[in-house]
Amino acid sequence: MLVAVVLVVIAVGTVVFHVVSPWWWTPIASNWHIIDDATLVTFWITGVAYVAVILFMAYCAVRFRYRKGRRAAYEPENKRLEWWLTGLTSLGVIGLLTPGLIVWNEFVTVPDDAAEFEVVGRQWQWSYRLPGKDGVLGASDPRLITGDNTFGLDPNDPRGQDDVLIEGDDLHLPIGRPLKVLMRSADVIHDFYVPHFRAKMDIIPGMVTYFWFTPTRTGTFDILCAELCGVGHHTMRGMVVVEADTDYQEWLQGQSTFADLMARAAPGDAVKLAADEGRGDAAANGNTRSGSDRPSPINR
Amino acid sequence: MAYAEPAVVDHAPPAEVPEVELYHAKTWLTKYVFSQDAKVIAIQYSLTAIAIGLVALVLSWLMRLQLGFPATFSFIEPADYYQYVTMHGMIMVIYLLTALFLGGFGNYLIPLMVGARDMVFPYVNMLSYWIYLLAVLVLAASFFTPGGPSGAGWTLYPPQSILSGTPGQEWGIILMLVSLMLFIIGFTMGGLNYVVTVLQARARGMTLMRLPLTVWGIFVATILALLAFPALFVAVVMSLLDRTVGTSFFMPHIVEMGEQLPYGGGSPILFQHLFWFFGHPEVYIVALPAFGIVSDLISTHARRNIFGYRMMVWAIIAIGGLSFVVWAHHMYVSGMNPYFGFFFATSTLVIAIPTAIKLYNWVLTLWRGNIHFTVPMLFCIAFIVTFLNGGITGLFLGNVSVDVPLSDTMFVVAHFHMVMGVAPIFVIFAAIYHWYPLISGRMFNQALGLFHFWVTFIGAYLIFLPLHYLGFVGVPRRYFEIGETGFVPESAATLNEFITVVALIVGFAQVVFMANLAWSVFRGRVAGRNPWRAVTLEWQTAEVPPGHGNWGPTLPVVYRWAYAYSVPGVEDDFVPQNLPPSQVKAADPSARAAE
Description:
Strand order of the largest sheet of chain B: 1-2
Number of strands of chain A: 10
Order of helices and strands of chain A: HHHEEHEEEEEEEEHHH
Largest sheet of chain B: 2 strands, antiparallel
Radius of gyration of chain A: 27 Å
Helix content of chain B: 55-70%
Structural class of chain B: mainly alpha
CATH topology of chain B: Cytochrome C Oxidase, Chain A
Structural class of chain A: alpha+beta
CATH architecture of the largest domain in chain A: Sandwich
Strand content of chain A: 15-25%
CATH superfamily of the largest domain in chain A: Cupredoxins -  blue copper proteins
Oligomer: heterodimer
Number of helices of chain B: 15
Mean pLDDT of chain B: 94
Largest sheet of chain A: 5 strands, mixed
CATH class of the largest domain in chain A: Mainly Beta
Number of domains of chain B: 1
Radius of gyration of chain B: 25 Å
Shape of chain B: globular
């Protein structure tokens, strides 16, 4: 009897806890509502099964508890029942998998008009790179990383001169536009994770990984590393500020480009020239729209 | 009605191979220490596994102290915490669960349940244990090396596992990798024994479809292990070479703390594929023996045949096969080709179907049974609850897109503890209580057993159920402390304190469990023969506990399946597998009429 009572308490208590628990999704700030929806479908299908099985066990614990003189039924198989249960479970699995795969298809299909930006992870800090006016990120190679060129950008690649580099500061992103995050790591595996955005992806040294999302809410959100990256893993934090496009553009004007930084590090005429040019163009193009069909620059 | 039970026959087929003379120990040393008797080896394996498991238990308390009361214990530094995480995980998965289910229960139960005198290669079996012990000692030694044990997480993902930003980079990781190699070598020696014994040394009449599900579970799990561990072995060897001689199997070009390292060209993701090609079957290497054992225990204590035996056998085989094509569901957000997600999500959710069938059949065995709520039965019920819970959260994580927000959060920690920690350990408890009278010849203390059960069951549920919800909030796993954030509410800290307190209480209950076992060996009530009135062969030995060679002068002959409980028309509610049909007492017709 005690067993049955405890089982009922577990079934009911789990549902009650689920409903009243103060711990639930962090309010979403991206387009991935559909992930939350797929999760809710999963909750419903599996929750019903969970409660049904436990309550049935509770019933058995009362109805078929040991009594002297009673005999258990001898029934090695019941094909009908077994096939019914298999069929029902298969339906449940289809019910789970269908939304799951539909959403995944969405997740892996980056919109053509997504703007690209880059996240670089290293022990134990985040830095970010935004394409300059040309809308393209310059080439990079970890072999080029030095104390001055911490992103490992190719100084000979003109596309990289105007790239905006953010180090030791918050990342700003414009609201309402699909963004493709390209991710690089200098050392070990990291994972760019913003709980409010739902999406996350590991960052593997030696390759560029990516995912996409659209910020849908302004605000300041935590960036965490979600893949164990050494003793400072839990300190690898950052902040992302999602803001209106005008605010974003204003912020962007105040940031340094690769050319700026290189000029500051090793003043030389050629680099300085390139820097000034890049700065000027970025400012001039600040509020224009680029209508090309390649990935549009984030700071259009 | 279509019975799974083949027609009971009076004769059994003649033995196909003659008996082989056993090794007879002459000295105390060869009888109890360097023993070739599977039962002694089983106990050696079990005690070693439990001993190192206790280390892992203490590590879990330390982790919980840090999570529940951050910035309180000055002796827990971040490096210490990551070392606890790593050693706790590795010990529990490999050195406790795998060793206890296969080396412990496998050794004890396979020969007895199939009606053999011993394992077929007793000497190799002995070596298996001693190499396992060496592996445990090498692993434990890493606690005493400069820099301490590895803090790379039990998954040991390179590059961080061998770089200086990770604790234990000096010696810990090397000892960890060497220990794993030893473990795999030792396991292979035992594993070959288990498989060949099941295939070659069964008693006359013990067809494959009469084997108890315990044997089926251990048998298939061993095959999985023999096929999966080599993948880990190569990953470990390559990691060790990357660490010691500077090869770059898994190491791309790396700039560590601004310094260019002489690595290049390797693939960190390759390691993950190899690791999980082992790592996912590993889940079933632990789960399948648990499935088997729980089937037999539920059947025995509910006095009812296991429901759908043949379906159960095929489900074990199907799960074993499928478990090799789901590994990358651990890697949905690893940066691998995202299109893999479609395949691996599908294969992962398909595996839920045979698993669910097994669960229904356990519940349907209770249905229309005559359930004795013994301590083993209670732990079996607790297993069903926690396994169901953990299986369901597996459907969240297996379903690729749902996994994205939850991956690498506390939800994952809660999920795998429920499904792979709590549930199989409940089966271990059930199995220890169930076979304790056979192994020791005495009964455990019932009241202490009940205390242990209720505290452990309720406690474990209270620990791990709310932990899932911290994952929903977004609390990442493997965090020394979450610190200040804009998304974790204050109440989460209170919850963490609560979980820590419960974890310590549950930990204390395990002390009671061990005290009960230790005390009962000497003072327990003498159990006598077959106290649970079980059908399977291990309870039908000449002596209790079974002696050297298990069966006395003649080997048992098997006449029926392993689930002849409450057979209609028979007086007793069980008919041992080896009882000749001529000796089965028919029920008193007048008693049956009254029923």
